[in-house]
């Protein structure tokens, strides 16, 4: 059996009276492509923020490769091997694509500099479909290309766990197919990925296991096809539609 990459045990985070993440636990093993799903506002992004250290849990523990990371600062967690993309892309707009990726290489787990960092950046930009666009300022790129840059930057740190927060959102159907096969390629290369996603076809085709959150709680965990046909899960999503 492969090693444990990430363990979340009893994580809790409240914003005032609102418990956004309520006693959530799950394990992700090395090499897994794992989904965190649930209706809008169920706590998925907050859970990613707890893992990456953008927020500190009020209770519970998060371990990376068996070592406790909860409570550490975000930059320390990044160094230890957690990288992420954001729901609303965060790139350095005045810099070109290559320098954005180099920034990831410098601050992550794999610290490379100089010519090695440039070569790594070019390799990763090619992997995400941006060969030949290394020197385009990111501000001049389309949204999908900015997402690609952000993903390449996250990969540049060689993370043990990669967090993708709705990376496929906003893509048109052909971009979506490209995005899905890119994530599949990353996982086939051995990358451990936790994806928060609303595109269910992508979850079905990509992920082995998932956790479903609703109102801050984990309501289901298991194989994707079993979980998505579970009546409680269907009801959680239908309830969300009625609220919308
Ligand atoms: N910084 C914050 N301050 C106060 N409330 C917050 C904060 N961040 C999130 N929340 C609230 O916590 C709850 C969970 O939000 P979160 O963004 O984690 O959900 P989500 O499942 O990622 O939603 P979506 O699918 O819409 O992105 C929501 O009610 C949200 O309004």
Automatic annotation (TrEMBL):
Annotated GO MF terms: ATP binding; ATP hydrolysis activity
Pfam families, sorted: ABC_tran
Annotated signal peptide: none
Name this polypeptide is given: ABC transporter ATP-binding protein
GO terms for cellular component: plasma membrane
Taxonomic path: Bacteria, Pseudomonadati, Pseudomonadota, Alphaproteobacteria, Hyphomicrobiales
Alphabetical UniProt keywords: ATP-binding, Nucleotide-binding, Transport
CDD domains with a match to the protein in the record: ABC_Mj1267_LivG_branched
PROSITE patterns given in the database record: ABC_TRANSPORTER_2
The keyword Protease appears for this protein: no
InterPro entries: AAA+_ATPase (IPR003593), ABC_AA/LPS_Transport (IPR051120), ABC_transporter-like_ATP-bd (IPR003439), P-loop_NTPase (IPR027417)
Organism, as annotated: Pseudorhodoplanes sinuspersici
Domain of life: Bacteria
SMART domains from the UniProt entry: AAA
